[in-house]
Amino acid sequence: MDQQKRLLLAIALSFGLTLVWTNFIWKPQAEAELAAMDAGVEFVVDGGTAVAAAPPPAVLEDGGVAEIAPSEPPPAEAALREIKIDRPTTRMVFTTEGAGLVSAELTGEREREEKHLTIAEGWQKLFGKKFEPAPHMNLARPVLGTSPNLGLSITGANPVTRLARYEVVEETPEKVVFKTRQGVWEVTRTFTWNQKPPHDTDPTPYVSELGVTVKNVSGSAQQGELGVHTVRSIDVGAEEAPSMFGGIGNQASVLCRHDDDVLRKTPPSKGWFSSGEPEWAEEKQGALSFVGIDQQYFLTVLWPKDAAVTGRCVVTAKPNQREAAMFMPLTLQPGESMTRTFNVFMGPKDLSMLQNLDASGFDARLEKTVDFGLWAFICKILIFFLRFFQNLVGNWGVAIILLTVMVKVLLLPLTHKAMVSAEAMKKLQPKMEEIRKKHPDDREKQNLEMMKLYQEAKMNPLGGCLPMLVQLPIWAALFTTLRTSYELYGEPFFGVWSNLTTKDPTYILPLLLGVTMIVTQRLQPQMMDKQQALLMTWVMPVFFTAIMMNYPAGLALYIFTNNLLSIVQQFALRRYLASKEAGPAVPGAAK
């Protein structure tokens, strides 16, 4: 058996497993494509004006028929206007058309839509050129023709559309109240928030409360379904799916936690694995804890304030928009009202911040919005130690270097044993070469005799691979952390490396990584034929360098630092073994 070939296979499988999980495991086929988000509502053009077509009357549980609201428009429609609110964390813009948000722009220095620099821009930045900062993240881009973010709908015999016109009945720096009367329903929507400035991992400056009161103003019992919608339009040209040579991507996904499962969807993949569908759409029923939109490092999530609600969620992921909606049954007697209260978080997807949100009331398990996949356990350990080191030194790049040193020290006994074994294997090379010459065309006999040689020498040919195999889950977990968690987003190392979660625009770190991999391979005892040696010494480093050119700079920094430490350790071990074989110096021997 050949340890280098097994090592190459293990590395490929590890990265392949991570990429398969990223692209396909949490992207199952949709059960059914939804025809429309507002069931039971059709729009027809009458003289150029869109009006709701009257659906058939609904049958109530007692056998009666629901009263259908008059189809003529109300005598006086509320004026269309926008309400602008400045919070310490967010610049919000509400609209009376749908009583929701058409803009929610975060204001923090790191809360920007960072984009990769080209190699030309990277080198210009390296030599001092200044670039305009990226625009701030806007979590409420409106989707034309549907509704604003956090819009409301009522479906059934007497629908309220998501574009219904509201009037503003109260407006303060900490509250906006909207009200409308649509047929048999009177709807009041109250948004409240505080004006606290952001502080460390305190989530409350990013939280709003949404109260919804629905009243039956008709003379008969009414029923339907109340829906609250989180929506966001997507710039198709700026969004990229993750891929092996394309990097971590920046796709937004839609979320719904039903019972104890989290449904997560992104648009259908393109290329060989394309489903041919223009969108993902799926519905789940049960106890609903939250719905929302995960914008990679940022999050919009809505959840009931007091407890999970029984109903259904619908998530839709089109190339140009994402939508996640929560629907609840609505049945009211004449004059009766129902109030639902929700919390809304719109901010950075910081794990500690989301855990603090769960600790403040109903535990909706919002930390589940951070999808670490297969490596969740290791990712959380890495974040803990990275935070610890960052608090010590104040730099996330240095924290990654210190994490690398810590892991190297922990693996030192294992690495030392593997290196000693590898150095001892060098003594077997002449005998191994004889075996190859003896059976040049029979690989099976070569392997059998080499295994016998290893047994006689009491050596394990895979011993040298063990430290690398232990490191592979750490590499995969760090990659997942860098593409998922906000902690390192927008954090600089120094100079041109101003964001450790984006690729190195100069390609310096990936190239240095490749050089150190070549040096590391050259230092290893060569126990294979020339073709295999060429593969391990040159092809694999070039392959990894090509991948790392589009992967986060933080991951390249970790592997580069690990390679440097391995080279130093290898030289130190060789000096130690050489001095040990030479024996103690004899006084007066050298004159």
From TrEMBL:
Any single biological process term in GO: protein insertion into membrane
Compartment annotation: Cell inner membrane; Cell membrane
Membrane topology label: Multi-pass membrane protein
GO molecular-function terms, A-Z: membrane insertase activity
Domain spans labelled Membrane insertase YidC N-terminal: 282-383
Keyword Transmembrane tagged: yes
Keyword presence, Protein transport: yes
Keywords (A to Z) from UniProt: Cell membrane, Chaperone, Membrane, Protein transport, Transmembrane, Transmembrane helix, Transport
Principal localisation: membrane
Function summary: Required for the insertion and/or proper folding and/or complex formation of integral membrane proteins into the membrane. Involved in integration of membrane proteins that insert both dependently and independently of the Sec translocase complex, as well as at least some lipoproteins. Aids folding of multispanning membrane proteins.
Subunit structure of this chain's protein: Interacts with the Sec translocase complex via SecD. Specifically interacts with transmembrane segments of nascent integral membrane proteins during membrane integration.
Protein name: Membrane protein insertase YidC
Organism encoding this protein: Archangium gephyra
